[in-house]
């Protein structure tokens, strides 16, 4: 308190001293100590200053307002999109619920179906023929309309079949009926095994009359190694000369008849199972000119071999295509015991299809051919010509086989021939030996046809072909060197 009193006294003394000095000594005007103020001469300048200050103050407010507007626009767009997605979701859920509801109503209608619906599916039965339910209980799907009007009873194999008291006999369904397609269709909810059955292999069940036996084998050619792989699988129904049969098989790759491969002997069986494999080394250029010969023999107690039959299999490009082996079966053929004729013999088949007006010729093989001594003649072929009134109509040729006296062809040719032309038509088969160039030499010829052109076996072959349409008639014919038919 004392300090405050002293400070107040000092301040009062200073004020008195200052006032004394001012009164005693003249000085400048006190308004000179004040800060200079800008002079505004015009109202227009004042308005400009006010505008500048207002603009400086309004810029932050404008930016804030634009940001707020942008946020509002974003919120509005997001709300619209969300509403659309929600609407689509609601529509999808409602559609699913509607489908389930419709399916539930459909099942309920099926359980209470009456004879009125049965008359729409089967008009053969009377309207009041059925009063029971049109589907079995527990079926989780809709029964087809054609089967809705049928009554069902459970079986022990968990299948459903028509009730035996069905008054409509035309639509009666028997359980496990194999001959009725409608009965198979009535098995609801199960797999029909008949649709997935593999076709039965008839090669082991159907044997023609007079069959000497059947042989199964496989053929595969390795192009890079130039090896022919032959698999001997089995044989069935061999005709043994005695009560017991001990077969074996010899394999030749014709025209080489000196070298052969032989299987093991199977004792006391007419249906041996061999399962043996053999290899022939042969070049890719000459493999298509070779013929596989399987000779089946019976070995008796004295170790003598008796021929039961043979199979000739020409190696064609079609059978050697691909890297996998092909399983083939052929019927045994008896060896011809007749001695060859002077110029050789030719075996071929004839067939005529009266529906298609087609004449078919199958050239099988030849034997006992008299080849020329000149080594430049290296291949043998057969030319098949269709003639009408001794005029050539059409000519076809087999593939050339390397110079062999017993070539095998097994090639098929077809000719167009009307039934009215068969009385004046004939077939000429000529065996030619061809050289490397264009030279060729005729080894023999045979002509088959009606009585106008042929006699003997050739005429019998032609007449048998006409009497057995659509059947193959096979025969041997002797070759001759006549130039005119």
Provide mean pLDDT, rounded: 75
β-strand percent reads 25-35%
Structural class: alpha+beta
Q: Write down the oligomeric state.
A: single chain
Helix content range of the residues, please?
Answer: 10-25%
Unreliable stretches covering 5 or more consecutive residues = 107-136, 155-159, 161-186
Shape: elongated
Tally of individual helices: 6
Reported for the largest beta sheet, the result is: 5 strands, antiparallel
How many runs of DSSP E, i.e. beta strands?
A: 19
The radius of gyration over CA amounts to: 55 Å
Distance between the termini: 170 Å
H/E series: HHHEEHEEEEEEEHEEEEEEEEEHE
Give an overview of the whole structure:
The structure is a single chain. With 485 residues, this protein is α+β, with helices and mostly antiparallel strands. The protein has six helices and 19 strands. The strands form five sheets. Strands 13, 14, 15, 17 and 18 form a five-stranded antiparallel β-sheet that branches. Strands 7-4-3-10 form a four-stranded antiparallel β-sheet, with no helix packed on it. β13 (377-388) and β14 (391-397) form a beta hairpin. The protein is elongated.
Question: Which features would summarize this protein structure in a list?
Answer:
485 residues, alpha+beta, elongated
